[in-house]
Each structure stands twice: as structure tokens, then as C-alpha cells.
Amino acid sequence: MSITTDQVQGIINSGGNVVNEEGHKLGGIGQIYLDDSTGEPTWVTVKTGLFGSQESFVPLEQASVDGSDIRVRYDKDTIKDAPRVDADRDLSPDEEKALYSHYGLGGAGGGTGDRDAGVGQADAGVGGVGDDRAADRDVSDRDRTDAGVADREDAGQDVSGSNTDGAMTRSEEQLKVGKQTQESGRARLRKYVVTENVTQTVPVQHEEVRVEREPITDANRGAAEEGPGISEEEHEVTLHEERPVVEKEAVPVERVRVGTETVTDEATVSDEVRKEQIDTDADDDRTRGAVGDDRTRGAGNDRSTT
User: Fold this and answer.
1) Where does the pLDDT of residue 80 fall: very low under 50, low under 70, confident under 90, or very high at 90 and above?
2) Closest by alpha carbon to 98, among 115, 113, 114, 76?
3) Could you give the CA distance from residue 228 to residue 32 in angstroms, rounded to a whole number?
4) In the chain, which end has fewer C-beta atoms inside a 10 angstrom radius, N or C?
5) How does DSSP assign 162-225, residue by residue?
6) Phi, psi for 198 (deg, rounded to 5)
7) How far is CA 276 from CA 114, 169, 219, 303, in A?
């Protein structure tokens, strides 16, 4: 069972989605295309990509309406791999044939009208879809007819005609190079801790035992004769020494920051550009009469390129 034109009127402005057979969202409804011969809906575009920037064509054969959504029988990968076709114009027969081939529907005559006649875009928000489409086709046909007549009237005027002034305009492409700023890399500061050995020399002092002997004199005789004449005694002296003491203290030593500077280099850009050239093409007699001896001095080269 396929979607009818009456159902199209109810969903085209509903803001619904295209879903698969399990009801999972495939994308928003973009545009619905009608068959030129039958006026029946044949294609719907599914908005995919970032912010719905792309539209993929999905056939409405065996599709159904589920509220404001359209349920199709294809999965997301199949739709994403469909041939890319511009959704802002009518489908050409070749484009439609490629789409039917992708979805395995076999081409024209498959039950959705005369596909080879082309498919037109539905007019959203109006009543008589078939009448409006017919009017659009009439206008389009007239535009194409008028354009064909204009082309025939203007044909050949680059060579001769009342609208020419005896001159031909030569154009060429010029290469214009601009600049844009983009990110080329990043630099960052990272602080980490390392351990190293620090050696410092510090003077230290210590006491050593020194035996001093002095003779008995009148000055120290009193101290020497105190106490017993013969006795055993013991004297003790405390020795001192200095030892290094290590303390560590974290102190700030410098400030480090990352800055940028602008360095100017030169970049060479090359591309192909097109330009028009104009050659002269005249009969031999007319060339001799117009150019004269200059043609002989040109060593037989009668081509003048601007």
C-alpha cells in the first residue's frame, strides 16, 4: 500500500520524520515528489547529515503514513548510500533510473506512474496539488519555449548581425589569491619534578685532645702541692665537633610563559586559469588586400593572437 495525494497534504507541513519499519527515526521529512503523469507521491527526501544539511531520496513505494511520520522499508545505511541528487529541482530520467536501480525497484512501470516522464516537486500548503503542478508545468514549458526562441534569434551574432560593432570581446580568468587563518598546531607549558644531586662544601670544626705540660714554678707551686703526695686520679675532658645539617626549602626562582610571534614567509600558489584567444581567418585575396607587404614580412604567419 502506497501513500496517497490526500495524505501528502496532511504531512507535508507537519514537521514529521521518515522512520524505518521498526519506527526508528531516519531523518526529517524534506520534500515530497509527485509523478507528472499520475500526480501520485513517488519520492520523499530525508534530511540527513549535520543539521539536516543533506537530503537523500527514498521511494514511497510500499511506504505508509504513521501519524505525522512516513514509514519506509529501507534502513539508514541504504538511504545514506543512495545516489546524490539535487533536491531543489525536478528529477531527470537518468537520475530517477539511478535511484530505482539503487533501491532495487527495476525502473519505470513498477506501479507508481510514468517515471520516465519526470517527477515534479509538490507544492506545500495548498489544496489542489494536481492542478498546481499542471500550471507549473505549463509555465515551465512556456519558459523553455521562450528561451529556445531567444537562443535562435541570438544565434550567430558573434559572427555577423545588426547587433555587432565589428569587435569581439576577449575574456580571461585571473587568479586571485586570498589568505585565511587556521590552526596549525599548539604549544603548552608543562611543569614536572626532577631530582638531582647538589654538592656543597661546608667548613666544620671539631675538638681534639692536646696534652700540655708545664714545669713547676712559683706561680703554680701552690696548686701543684695541694692534695696527697702520691695518689691516683682521673680527669675527663668532653670533646665537641660540628656536623653539617641539611634543610630544604622551596623558593621561586623564575617565571615562564608561552607567547607567540608572527613570522612572515612566502607561499607559492599555482592553478590553471582559462583565457580566450582570437585568431583571424580571412580569404587569401582579402588578406593580401588588407595586409599587403606586412603579410610577407610576417613569414607567412597570418595568425594574430591577442
Assistant:
1) confident
2) 115
3) 135
4) N
5) TT--S-----B---------------------------------B-----------TTTHHHHT
6) -120, 125
7) 45, 9, 131, 15
Q: What is the mean pLDDT of residues 201-214?
A: 90
Distance CA 87, CA 58 (A): 12
Cell of 213: 705540660
pTM above 0.90, yes or no: no
Is there a contact between 91 and 32 (Cβ–Cβ < 8 Å)? Answer: no
Contact (Cβ atoms closer than 8 angstroms) between residue 52 and residue 28: yes
Q: Return the sign of the alpha-carbon dihedral for residues 189, 195, 199, 205.
A: positive
Tell me: the pLDDT tens digits for 148-171? 434 444 444 444 444 556 688 899
CA distances from residue 35 to 129, 130, 178, 236 in whole angstroms, order as listed: 11, 10, 47, 124
Please tell me the distance from the alpha carbon of residue 162 to that of residue 46, in angstroms, as a whole number: 52
pLDDT band at 282 (very low <50, low <70, confident <90, very high): low
